[in-house]
Specification:
The protein has helices spanning 32-40, 63-71, 86-94, 100-114, 118-126, 129-137, 142-156, 159-167, 170-180, 183-196, 200-208, 212-222, 225-238, 242-250, 253-262, 267-275, 279-287, 291-301, 304-320, 322-330, 333-340, 346-361; strands at 21-23, 29-31, 60-61. By secondary structure, the protein is mainly α. β1 (21-23) and β2 form a beta hairpin. Pfam families: ARM_PUB, U-box.
Length: 366
């Protein structure tokens, strides 16, 4: 069955369909298990570009691609209907005389076609589709806006398109949707931010754009489940760029994330794990009453990934504050660590050992 999936869905290392696609700093996507094996074998270059990687490269979840893979359905060629050539569809979309219903149909067809075809995604931008798509994103009609955002998201999945989409004004439109769009549109807009932020230069551009980070923080407060999750994912992606961490902190994101984490949004711990790397982030976390208690709850009940971020965040905080060490001890963190020290995951064991050593260095344990 895997051979019937688009090549973009296959890990470049294993050549199998990806179950947990993640993005290396080089911008290329791999299945998490495959790239972790590559890194654990001592490699410190990108398997595709052969360019050097940091000592501990950040693996950014490619939620947009993961969603496409999970929603992908095989189509029986015998039942498929002939459709116009993509270039014809683009020409009709860019025509000022195309009525609303026609545009909805065109966007639907183009979104379906580009979902599976990376070469076509590049072709569409070459054929001048981007301005027409962005005009539809600006529409007051929520259905048209949603269809246009879905196509924009597909186009952004191609690395060659990411910088060009931002240069043509995609961020302006997407940020406006984050504020004023329907719930579904806001969620897709946040996912688009995540996709565009794969390219390092785009992280800087998005962060510097007026209200972009503030709009994502606002969505954490006002959005529903999916919107909050996608907004947190977008913040995680853009805050790997150091300057954006301080911008997010200045927008008051830290107490909001801790509150969401306490309410069950585990994605929040990933963002906190990035923000804790800067002094301002640590200082804000230290001000939040109950922060340590919430982090310890993640260690008790979180997923494997959540536990890793919880250990890292708690270790960074305890390294800076003896008071938090004793708070962590009072919350039972040592007993939890004793259970995690035997974990199969090497990163979990390493983070656990680091936290225990930090507690010992700060005399929280003898």
């Amino acid at each position: 069955m895997a051979t019937q999936f688009p090549d973009d869905f296959k890990c470049p290392i294993s050549l199998e369909i990806m179950s947990d696609p993640v993005i290396l700093p080089s911008g290329h996507t791999f299945d998490r298990v495959s790239i972790q094996r590559w890194l654990e074998a001592g490699h410190r270059t990108c398997p595709i570009t052969k360019l050097p990687l940091p000592e501990h490269p950040c693996l950014i979840p490619n939620h947009a691609l993961r969603s496409l893979i999970s929603n992908y359905t095989l189509v029986d060629p015998s039942k498929s209907q002939p459709c116009p050539q993509p270039q014809t569809l683009v020409s009709a979309l860019t025509s000022p005389s195309s009525p609303l219903e026609t545009k909805l149909n065109l966007l639907t067809q183009l979104a379906r076609l580009t979902k599976h075809d990376s070469a076509l995604r590049r072709k569409l931008t070459e054929w001048g589709a981007t301005p027409a798509v962005l005009r539809c994103v600006d529409s007051d009609d929520s259905n048209l806006q949603e269809k246009a955002l879905s196509l924009l998201l597909n186009l952004s999945l191609d690395d060659d398109n990411k910088v060009g989409l931002v240069a043509e004004g995609a961020i302006n439109r997407v940020v406006k949707v984050l504020r004023l769009g329907s719930p579904d549109c806001r969620a897709i807009a946040a996912t688009s931010i995540t996709s565009l932020a794969v390219v390092e230069v785009n992280k800087a551009t998005i962060g510097a754009y007026p209200d972009a980070i503030q709009a994502l923080v606002w969505l954490l407060i006002s959005g529903k489940g999916r919107e909050k999750k996608e907004a947190a994912t977008a913040l995680y992606a853009i805050c790997s760029f150091a300057v954006n961490r301080r911008r997010a902190i200045d927008c008051g994101v830290v107490p909001i994330l801790i509150g969401l984490l306490d309410s069950g949004l585990e994605r929040a711990i990933e963002v906190l794990g990035v923000l804790v790397k800067c002094k301002e982030g640590r200082e804000e976390m230290m001000k939040v009453n109950g922060c340590v208690k919430v982090l310890v709850q993640v260690l008790r009940n979180g997923s494997s990934r959540g536990i890793q971020y919880g250990l890292f965040t708690l270790n960074c905080l305890c390294n800076c504050c003896e008071r938090l060490c004793f708070e962590a001890m009072n919350e039972g963190v040592l007993e939890i660590c004793m259970g995690l020290i035997e974990e199969e995951n090497e990163k979990t064991r390493r983070y656990t050992s680091s936290l225990v050593q930090t507690l010992r260095d700060n005399h929280a344990i003898g």
